[in-house]
Amino acid sequence: MIDPDGYRPNVGIILMRDDGSVFWARRISRDGWQFPQGGMNTDETPIEAMYRELAEETGLQSHHVEVLGATPGWLRYRLPARSVRSHTKPVCIGQKQVWFLLQLKTDDSAVRLDATDSPEFDAFRWVDFWYPGENVVHFKREVYVRALQLLSPMARSLAGESKVPAHVGEQLVRRLDERRREQGGPRRSRQDRKPA
After folding, report:
1. Tell me: the pLDDT tens digits for 112-150?
2. Nearest to 28 by CA among 99, 116, 93
3. Within a 10 A sphere around the Cβ of 45, how many other Cβ atoms?
4. Which positions ≥6 away from 166 have C-beta within 8 Å?
5. How far apart (Å, rounded) are the C-alpha atoms in residues 160 and 141?
6. Are 173 and 145 in contact, with CB atoms under 8 Å apart?
7. 195: CB partners within 8 A, 6+ apart
8. Do residues 118 and 56 lie in contact, with contact meaning Cβ atoms separated by under 8 Å?
């Protein structure tokens, strides 16, 4: 399913422990690390897609987590030109995502990266809350920083200011804005109205 602007509806998952660390997973056969994410089926709401993707990519079920919050609308990123399959119709130029912040309510033993026949990830680790904003592949960076920034108040209410410091997120946003100005682009990733 691709919208009229060429974006595929998608959900992103920030899975957090009580200490403020977040789940960071390595993609199979690649050196890239990212949060769990995946496309929405036409008959799914964002929360239904989130629970399905959570189960497929981490093996975790709804009783293993608590939803702490979600971004208020779609966050978009464009794919690099080399990744756009212009020979397919409709052409997908990027992803539009609703991001969820989840609290892990169990220990790591419940995580199963091989929960499906075609796993997405082959390793995971727990990293500081803001780490993914600087370490994800460049074309997803703005969306990651924006999602982390939007969800950080909920994360901070659980883990505390020392584990999810507001000033770190503000610094990341400033650096992104500076890069965008240098490149002559808009200040931040596009955010649309709340999805249905």
Report:
1. 999 999 999 999 999 999 999 999 999 999 999 999 999
2. 116
3. 13
4. 152, 156
5. 24
6. yes
7. 9, 46, 73, 74, 98
8. no
Which of 126, 118, 170 minimizes the C-alpha distance to 148? 170
| CA dihedral sign of residues 168, 169, 175, 178 | negative
Does this model's pTM top 0.70? My answer is yes
Are β-strands 94-104 and 7-16 bridged in parallel, bridged antiparallel, or unpaired?
parallel
Domains and CATH numbers, the chain: 7-183 (3.90.79.10)
Q: Which two tokens stand for residue 139?
A: 């074309």
- In one-letter notation, the amino acid at residue 90 is P
Integer-rounded Cα Rg, in Å, for the chain is 16
In whole angstroms, what is the distance from residue 161 CA to residue 167 CA?
Answer: 10
Provide the b/e sequence for 112-133 (b: ≥16 CB within 10 Å): ebebeeebbbeebebebbbbbb
* pLDDT at site 186: 58
